[in-house]
Amino acid sequence: MKRSFSFPARLRLDYDVFVALFLNLSLVFQFLGAILVLLLGREPGWFTLIQKTAVAAFLVLAVAALLLRGAGLLLLTGSAIWLALHLGSYFIEPRITILLVRIVIYSYGYVLLTACLIARIKDPSALIRAMKPFIPVSLLYAIVQLLVFRKTGLYSMPFSYATVPSAILCLLFWKKEKKYLFLFLLIALVDLICGSRGCFLCFLLAVLLSELMQGKKGYRILGLALLALAFLLILVNISAIAGLALKLFPGSRTVQILASGEFHLSGREAYYSNLLNIMRESGFAPHGLYSDRFVMAMYHARYSMEEIFGSYAHNFLIEVLFQFGWIGIPLLILFFISLFVSYGRVRRSGDAGMIRVWIIAVSYSMGQLLVSSSYLTAISFGMLLGVMLLSRRVPANGRLRLPGSYFIG
């Protein structure tokens, strides 16, 4: 006799709500941490312990969610590929063992599990609805972060990237509800004052992808051309424009850099040139996953595990080429072909929810990974891999096909 297992109704959690919370867990804890910094001047040790415990718990729950969703084969396949890549890298660069704990949490947890969670979504519109409540959380975080900046004078890259999904959601909603434009501008303003410049690349990509998804009509092509022209004119006159903005936001790091006339990448140029030189000298030989961290840590005289882990290439393309060598060239070509194919499938489907999820994932990931973070640790890259897998289930009629049962409800 076949038995079935189900959770009591009060213990059930909607799969899409869980995925939305998983994607925004960093946003929630950063927001709470910013409040503590505002009140206490720092994040106390007990809060860090709670955060680490919560992350570990959510990773375990994510595995359980996938198994209950009928994604055991997907998880097993992804885990096997992940393990094979890391074992191969160990023989090339044995020092990666000192990063093992963080590799498991970030690479396996944030990237692989995120990709699997997104890939097993049944209704993308339901995920979009589940992510909307995090817009007000992002707005409150923006207000608190502005107060923290006035108190400490420190800008926050984590704030910018944690609020990117909510900001892009606002961009996708504002034509139907004008209030979302105001909400987006508020987040973007705080980004300008005390955030990262890279988030604006995410926003620009989101606008361009949104237009491309809506067709190839002449006025859209003209609109994109005018947008590109306006962006070019702003770029040419950026120092003068930033000089005026500096009077309004004298403490903004981003505006100060632009007004100086020296639009640089905050030291990333050294990362790029050093890694490219090593690639040329080695004949584009593979160096293994995370190998760029050890090279850049040595260059900057960084020796602790935390410092080494944070010394990545800061550019997705260079990172892949350095780690995989000549093998990275066909890998990148295959990746971008797959991304373009997923764009075609999603656009032809006409499914509004799928289109929105795709735009958020692609613009968030590519905007971030071209100038910041690492594809091996960024949850945005896990989202990107997930929507590429999800798009394979989108037929011409736009209806998703997925075997298996719902996770806890």
Polypeptide structure, described:
- The N terminus and C terminus are likely disordered.
- It is built from 21 helices and no strands.
- By secondary structure, it is mainly alpha-helical.
- The chain is globular.
Short description:
This protein has 409 residues and is an all-alpha fold.
- Cα(first) to Cα(last) distance is 23 Å
Described by the principal axes of the CA atoms, the overall outline is globular
- E-strand count: 0
Q: What's the total helix number?
A: 21
Instruction: Look at the helices and sheets and give the structural class.
Output: mainly alpha
- Indicate the low-confidence ranges by residue numbers: 1-11, 402-409
How would you characterize the largest beta sheet?
none
The Cα radius of gyration reads: 22 Å
Order of helices and strands: HHHHHHHHHHHHHHHHHHHHH
- Overall pLDDT score: 83
Helix content: over 70%
**Fraction of residues in β-strands:** under 5%
Please give the structural blueprint:
Blueprint: H1 15-23, H2 25-40, H3 45-68, H4 72-92, H5 100-119, H6 124-131, H7 134-152, H8 157-162, H9 164-173, H10 179-194, H11 198-213, H12 218-236, H13 238-248, H14 253-259, H15 268-281, H16 291-299, H17 305-309, H18 316-324, H19 328-349, H20 352-369, H21 379-391
Helix pairs in contact: 1-6, 2-7, 3-5, 4-5, 5-21, 6-20, 7-10, 9-10, 9-11, 9-20, 11-20, 13-14, 19-21, 20-21
Entry keywords:
409 residues; mainly alpha; 21 helices; disordered N terminus; disordered C terminus
